[in-house]
Amino acid sequence: MIQGSLVALVTPMQADGALDADALAGLLDFHVASGTDAVVAVGTTGESATLSEDEHCALIAQVVAHVAGRISVIAGTGANSTSEAIRLTRCAYEAGADACLLVTPYYNKPPQEGLYQHHKAVAEAVQIPQILYNVPGRTAVDMLPDTVARLAKIPNIVGIKDATGDLERYQQTRDLCGDDFAIYSGDDETAMELMLAGANGDISVTANVAPKAMHDMCAAAMAGNRALAESINANLMRLHSGLFVESNPIPVKWALYEMGRIQTGIRLPLTALSETMRDDLSENLRAAGVL
């Protein structure tokens, strides 16, 4: 089971929006050196919605090849088209990814049975470990614990990223799915409490800019060391909130640019961080000791 601090990696781009392979390689080395436990490549933070299928598959292959087994690679392969999700998941399997992360179909607003059938179809089509991803604030659909429990019975559906920030939802899911089913936080502000309650890690935006601190906080929380986890997390709280002052990944890409790790590229319809937000974000980065 993959556990710990799993970075929801941005996709570096040049100023014109072209993919930046060199910067991506640099970010991967940064995470390996900083103790990040796994990389989630080309997920929603990686702007998967504005990448072509060819770009998506090529990026997964680059990440797997460059990491070369040093840490685990989870490929984002979700889509609001079931057939597209199957194609992307097959690409990840063929590239050698360790697992896939599949966001619930966005915009379509499928019923619970539609969510079940969608994820079941992908799991049956490609025999790679698959992690569900529920983020109703972005997709306009909420996968309920009963549906997760149905899907958990499928052998290669091994976990869920829950971005609701709801501790009661976590406990419901854990009770229904058992300890062998991985549950990851998808909300940095509440991740510490979720891990102290027994979650298996955090698929984190903050880890893009503070990977060592996030690794250490996750390790402490998962070990049940509340005092240490709280001490580390206190220095990260301004980042947890500051990296969401505009739609993700706008702030985190600007933060990485400020840190000198990527260029300013981001794809429309997203745009660079508003100038009025930049000073505050820079101050948050300095306060956390990463700038």
Report what the structure shows:
By secondary structure, the chain is of the alpha/beta class. The chain has a single domain, classed as TIM Barrel (Alpha-Beta Barrel). 47% of the residues lie in helices and 13% in strands. It is built from 13 helices and eight strands. An eight-stranded parallel beta barrel has the order 1-2-3-4-5-6-7-8, surrounded by six helices. β2 (38-41), α2 and β3 (72-76) form a beta-alpha-beta unit. α3 packs parallel to α4 (112-125), α6 runs parallel beside α7 and α8 (188-196) packs parallel to α9 (211-222). The mean pLDDT is 97.
Helix content: 40-55%
Provide the number of structural domains. Answer: 1
**What is the CATH class name?**
Alpha Beta
Largest sheet: 8 strands, parallel, barrel
Under CATH, the topology can be stated as TIM Barrel
Secondary-structure class: alpha/beta
Helices and strands, with pairings:
Elements: E1 4-8, H1 21-34, E2 38-41, H2 53-67, E3 72-76, H3 82-95, E4 99-103, H4 112-125, E5 130-134, H5 136-139, H6 145-152, E6 157-162, H7 167-177, E7 182-185, H8 188-196, E8 201-204, H9 211-222, H10 226-234, H11 237-242, H12 250-258, H13 275-287
Parallel strand pairs: 1-2, 1-8, 2-3, 3-4, 4-5, 5-6, 6-7, 7-8
List keywords for this structure.
globular, alpha/beta, 13% strand, TIM Barrel, 291 residues, 13 helices, eight-stranded parallel β-barrel
